[in-house]
Write a structure and sequence with these properties.
Length: about 140
Amino acid sequence: MPITDNKRLEIEQEHHEIRAVLRRLEAASGPATIASRLGQLAGLLESHFALEESSDGLHSSIGKAALHLLPKVEGLFSEHRQISSTIDRLRRQCTDHERMAEEIREGARALVRQLRDHEAEENAVLMQSVLDVHGAGD
């Protein structure tokens, strides 16, 4: 069953909220602020990843003509777990902030880049599925 407009809007709204937290995370300078932003991000991503991985999430947006994209979607789902693990690791590092401040900032920036790339890949998969289902140029 195709993804509903409501579900698509919900996912888009969550992406908007996540991008806002990513901007604040990227601008954070101290480990305490980074830890706070990571906590906000973790909360958003937990529910967002659950929504995307639900039966009416990303899988349902992939049409029958685009089944070849399912391995990409599974790869994105696997990356969800890796991203969550990275957030957990960075939050633990924030507790020893004086010694690790620069490493934490660089890790947070790398996480921002990874999530931006992740979203771009999701968007590319969804766009390709639309083209595959409806035919390019038809």
